[in-house]
Specification:
Strand content of chain A: under 5%
Oligomer: heterodimer
Structural class of chain B: alpha/beta
Strand order of the largest sheet of chain B: 6-2-1-7-8-10-9
Number of helices of chain A: 4
Number of strands of chain B: 10
Order of helices and strands of chain A: HHHH
Order of helices and strands of chain B: HHHHHEHEHEHEEHEEHEEE
Shape of chain B: globular
Shape of chain A: rod-shaped
Largest interface: A-B, 24 and 24 residues
Number of strands of chain A: 0
Helix content of chain A: over 70%
């Protein structure tokens, strides 16, 4: 069955040879014309036989060629309907299997392009979702960065303030040390002052005592002067009586005439003496009066001095009390300033550790800022990748569309 | 993934510097580690050492790693409150300090959305000015040059701005000429030096987040160098000069991270 065409060909050749042999026997070759005739007939018979057998074959081949033509146009719906057991049949079966396979493969390709387009579509959707999410993340990072920036600025300000506070605290500590010294000095000075005031008080006491004694002594002067005064009065009385006596003697002498002339001279002398005495007595009286007056004056001056000294004493007492109070409060001030000094020192210490904390916070803020930059870089890169993916997805979509349009040229 | 050791990171930094000219030591350990991880997974290298060997031999992988090191994330009017604050401050300063025309540096600009947002800001405020947009990535700058952006990036604008400043093409929007002519794209490595000087505003947003503190200090110095006295520096929303820039800058709008050059 498999070598039908060969067999037919061999048959045709045999028939030609047989015919030629038959011609040769029946009409033996006489000349070259006969020979040509024989050959011509032989060829004619062979041609007819070949045409007949070829026509038999081509019918099937034309049918197959029709199928192939339609296949070439992309129509895969063709059924190969040539049934034969020869080579043509073999070709037909091969063609049928080719069509089946092509139909199957292209069907699968068509389905694939469909699902590919879908996949790319959902990839695009996912990409845009990721892009949206990335934008949100970027927004959040920017928010954080804003916060970090603010934080850094605040911490910077706080650090500045802390430095100011620290320097103020140390200034306070310094000043309070000086103040403590001053307070200590003033305590000492006021104590000295109080002591001096006490001494002044004692001195005032002395003055008072002396003045009192002097007043006493001056008062005895007054008494003595009074005594002198009464003595002078006695002398005055005596001289007055002597004067009267002298007058009487003069009168008696005149009565006695010449005998009494000498006596009258004596009486006159006595009268003059009494007058001198009276004059002296009155001078003494004036002096003693003056002494009394002066003494009185001295006494009143001394009394003034006394009361002034007493006032002075009271004042110095007040000064002394005040100075004692000042001493006490200076002591208190000293204590208070010492406490302030201690507090200020503690504060200075505290601000220095506050400074450390501040710089720690500052470090964190700096780290945050660096972190947000890092995160921002990552989101930028992600966005770039997403754009790339979108482009690639678009390229894939384009390719799959091209493929589909190619596949769609086939009728399945 | 096993995190890379110090020696491996150092070797990576040296190689980055040799291959791309990037100052490797400026980038944080954590950033390099994060960037390394996906490349390890893609290439199937078991550890950082193996990956380093691999990337040194494979120029294609080297390009992939470089693209991983430049993070292009940006959008139009990103953090709108920053633009509002900046617009307000600029309105006052430009007239009082005679800043005309305004010179603004957007660094790094990535694909240029920030620079174009600034151009819109200038247009709306009717201010004369130009924006120098600097970045290391040529492909990012190419997009800025083309002015064409996918619709998705335009979400930060209101409908009027979109209509006024963009024309719609098949699947993207193209910035109009009067925006793009205000922007000059410049390719440069900002960790080396800033381009030009005499700027009134420098926007350096979301660059610090990838860099070490030493690099941040240096970049602040660079920003101060290229700014005019009283010029403004705008940082990203999580970045600040408080730790690294004492003396060089003082805050103008702390919330929006707008600072001015001191002295």
């Amino acid at each position: 069955m498999r070598v039908k065409i060969t067999e037919a060909f061999v048959g045709v050749v045999l028939m030609v040879l047989l015919f030629a042999a038959w011609l040769d026997i029946k009409y033996p070759a006489e000349d070259w014309k006969n020979m040509i005739l024989k050959i011509f007939f032989g060829l004619l018979v062979g041609l007819v036989a070949g045409l007949v057998s070829a026509n038999f074959l081509t019918k099937k081949l034309v049918a197959l060629a029709g199928v192939a033509e339609k296949l070439a146009q992309g129509d895969l719906t063709q059924e190969v309907s040539v049934h034969a057991s020869d080579e043509v049949g073999l070709l037909a079966r091969s063609l049928a299997s080719l069509v089946r396979n092509l139909r199957e493969v292209l069907g699968q390709v068509k389905a694939s392009t469909g699902s590919m387009a879908q996949a790319v579509q959902s990839l695009t959707v996912s990409t845009s979702q990721v892009a949206t999410a990335t934008t949100e993340v970027a927004g959040n990072i920017q928010g954080i960065a804003k916060g970090a920036e603010k934080q850094a600025a605040s911490v910077e300000r706080a650090a500045e303030v802390t430095v100011q506070v620290a320097s103020a605290a140390s200034a306070i500590a310094d000043k309070s040390r000086v103040t403590e010294e001053h307070a200590s000095t003033s305590a000492e000075r006021s104590a000295e002052g109080a002591e001096a005031a006490g001494e002044a008080n004692a001195a005032m006491d002395d003055i008072l005592r002396h003045v009192e004694k002097s007043v006493e002594q001056v008062s005895t002067f007054k008494e003595r002067a009074t005594e002198i005064h009464s003595l002078v009065e006695g002398i005055s009385t005596l001289s007055h009586q002597t004067h009267i006596l002298a007058l009487n003697a003069t009168i008696e002498a005149a009565r006695a005439g010449d005998a009494g002339r000498g006596f009258a001279v004596v009486a006159e002398e006595v009268r003059r003496l009494s007058e001198n005495t009276r004059e002296l007595a009155s001078q003494i009286a004036r002096l003693s009066q003056e002494i009394t007056g002066r003494t009185q004056e001295v006494v009143s001056r001394m009394e003034e001095t006394h009361s002034a000294a007493r006032l002075g004493q009271k004042r110095t007492e007040a000064v002394s009390t005040a100075l004692e109070r000042i001493t006490a409060s200076a002591e208190e001030t000293k204590e208070a300033v010492r406490a302030i000094s201690r507090e200020a020192a503690a504060q200075a210490l505290g601000t220095s550790s506050l400074n450390a904390i501040m710089s720690e916070i500052q470090g964190v803020a700096t780290d945050n800022a660096a972190g947000t930059q890092e995160a921002s870089a990552a989101t930028e890169e992600t966005t770039a990748s997403m754009d790339e993916i979108s482009q690639q997805a678009q390229a894939v979509l384009n390719e799959s569309n091209r493929l589909r349009s190619l596949v769609e040229k086939f009728k399945l | 993934m096993k995190p890379p050791s110090r020696a491996e990171l150092r070797s990576l930094r040296e190689w980055i510097e040799r291959s791309f000219g990037l100052r490797g030591e400026d980038y944080r350990d954590s950033f390099l580690t994060r960037r390394l991880e996906p490349r390890l997974q893609v290439t199937g290298c078991p550890d950082p050492a193996a990956y380093l060997k691999h990337v040194k031999r494979d120029p294609k992988e080297a390009r992939a790693l470089l693209s991983k090191l430049l993070i292009p994330t940006t959008e139009f009017f990103r953090n709108p409150e920053v633009f509002e604050a900046l617009s307000e401050i600029l309105g006052k300063r430009a007239s009082s300090l005679g800043w005309k025309p305004l010179r603004i540096l957007s660094a790094p600009c990535s694909t240029g959305e920030e620079a174009l947002s600034l151009a819109i800001l200038l247009e709306e405020a009717k201010m004369d000015g130009r924006i120098v947009a600097a970045d290391l990535s040529l492909s990012a700058l190419r997009r800025l040059k083309s002015g064409a952006y996918p619709f998705k990036g335009l979400e930060g604008m209101d409908i009027k701005q979109k209509e006024r400043y963009f024309t719609v093409e098949e699947n993207r929007a193209r910035a109009v000429r009067r925006l793009t002519r205000r922007v000059l794209p410049v390719c440069c490595d900002l960790t080396r030096a800033f381009p030009g000087r005499g700027f009134h505003v420098v926007l350096m947003r979301n660059l610090f987040i990838y860099l070490t503190e030493a690099a941040q200090v240096r970049l602040l110095g660079e920003a101060a160098r290229v700014l005019v006295p009283g010029g403004l520096l705008v940082l990203g929303r999580v970045e600040s000069v408080s730790r690294t820039g004492h003396g060089l800058f003082k805050p103008v709008a702390r919330e929006a991270r707008v600072y001015e050059k001191a002295g």
